[in-house]
Design brief:
The chain folds into 3 domains: about 90 residues, 5' to 3' exonuclease, C-terminal subdomain (DNA polymerase, domain 1, Orthogonal Bundle), CATH 1.10.150; about 90 residues, no CATH class; about 210 residues, 3-Layer(aba) Sandwich (Rossmann fold). It has a 7-stranded parallel sheet, with helices on both faces. It is globular. With about 425 residues, the chain is of the alpha/beta class. The protein is built from 18 helices and 7 strands. Keywords: ATP-binding, Helicase, Hydrolase, Nucleotide-binding. This is ATP-dependent helicase. One of its GO terms (molecular function) is helicase activity. It comes from Corynebacterium pollutisoli.
Length: about 425
């Protein structure tokens, strides 16, 4: 199904390119070359668009008075350049035009929707097993089996044991039928179908489009240490978010709900712990304290201390002594004396949007004393540019300038890109 989806996506790109070229008049060819061209008289042989030039043989073009073989070849070369540029603007967006390829792709995704029963962790297991299987030689003969003891070997054994219990996940998908209304369903749920396409093709959107090239290179070249992560396979964009945090050191992560802001924060904490910065402090509302404790214990092997209620002081002292992840409410951050953490994670960061409150001043002091800071907020900056200017001033004051809160949202977002990531 993946290969067929890739084929249909390529065909859809070609259809869009052809449609664009049919809309471009022949004089658009001037933008594709510095060489001298001639257009007069092309209309007499039915050539009106760039697509017409591509469809007309060189010999036919030379029948126009004033167009010789050289000019004809230049016309076709320029048209081919525009065609390649059109195809090069490849996108995975299905669009709303019911072309043959678009409708076939939607039908395929509707079929995939019926058999897409694995969660992300299970899909990662399946990908790893298939990857190992591809490395097995197809020829016969004796094999040498090397047994290891490291985490990769243990993960391999765990994956094989899982596949042994669930052999059906490695079997070819059974053909399924879909109704003829799949295109209508797509038009009512385009985001669902786009997500299916991303899953089928293993596409991920890293984000960071407005970042400078050198920052992107440092993020992409950083090898994330996952020694202390357990039962967690990061998706590509999640790994990027964790590495963005580590490289830029003090940032805001504004991903939409459901994209895994918590696991990105935990991945960054696990990396820092493995590299010697072992005191992570999570400041969050009391209502999500239990969720943080559950996620931290599930996805990391780090000590987790719930510093709340009657055991708050004892938990903080144990964290200060042994390191790990300390979970503290906003009120706790205001009333508890504690050592400067290495990494501060602030969940629901809009709680500290008012610089005048005691809560904000307490968290600001923790932010100033840490080497790494991650503010989490699912509220789009477009909703309140002025409030985001305050949050940015906590993590990257050098990006703030007078009157910045009055900027248009798009300009503001580009300006703060080194400290703000949202997908």
């Amino acid at each position: 199904m993946r290969r067929e989806a890739e084929r249909l996506l390529d065909a859809l790109t070609a259809e869009r390119a052809d449609l664009l070229l049919r809309q471009l008049p022949v004089d658009a060819l001037k933008t594709a070359t510095n060489e001298r061209l001639r257009f007069t008289g092309l209309d007499t042989i039915g050539v009106h668009t760039v697509a017409d030039v591509l469809a007309t043989p060189t010999g036919r073009l030379t029948q126009v008075q004033g167009i010789g073989a050289t000019t004809a070849r230049r016309l076709r070369a320029a048209a081919e350049t525009l065609r390649q540029e059109a195809v090069g603007t490849h996108t995975t967006g299905i669009g709303d035009t019911p072309t043959a390829s678009a409708m076939a792709l939607v039908r395929l995704l509707a079929q995939f929707d019926q058999i897409n029963t694995l969660d992300e962790i299970q899909r990662a297991r399946r990908r790893r097993i298939l990857g190992w299987a591809e490395k097995v030689p197809a020829t016969g003969g004796l094999w040498d089996v090397l047994v290891g003891e490291g985490p990769e070997w243990r993960a391999y054994l765990d994956d094989i044991a899982w596949a042994d219990v669930h052999p059906e996940v490695l079997a070819p998908a059974r053909p399924v039928t879909v109704s003829g209304e799949s295109w209508a369903d797509y038009l009512t749920r385009p985001a669902h179908y786009q997500a299916l396409l991303s899953t089928l093709l293993d596409l991920e959107v890293e984000g960071g489009d407005d970042l400078a090239a050198d920052i992107l290179e440092r993020i992409r070249s950083l090898r994330l240490d996952t020694t202390h992560l357990t039962d967690l396979h990061l998706r590509g964009y999640q790994s990027f978010g964790a590495r963005f945090t580590l490289v830029q050191e003090k940032v805001i992560l504004g991903d939409d709900m459901g994209l895994g802001k918590t696991v990105q924060a935990l991945a960054a904490a696990a990396h820092l712990h493995a590299t010697g910065r072992q005191h992570t402090l999570v400041v969050c509302p009391a209502s999500v304290l239990t969720n943080w404790e559950r996620e931290a214990r599930r996805f990391t092997d780090l000590p987790v201390y719930r510093a709340h209620g009657s055991e708050r002081v004892e938990a903080v002292r144990a964290w200060e002594s042994d390191g790990g992840i300390c979970l503290l409410t906003y009120d706790g951050a205001r009333t508890t004396e504690l050592r400067a953490p290495d990494f501060v994670i602030v969940d629901e960061a809009h709680f500290i949007k008012n610089p005048a409150t005691g809560r904000t001043r307490a968290v600001r002091a923790l932010i100033d004393g840490a080497s790494h800071v991650l503010l989490l907020s699912g509220t789009p900056l477009e909703n309140r540019v002025s409030e985001f200017a305050t949050l940015v001033s906590f993590v990257a004051p050098e990006l703030i300038s007078t009157g910045m809160s009055e900027m248009a949202a798009a300009d503001f977002r580009k300006r703060i890109a080194p400290a703000y990531l949202r997908r």
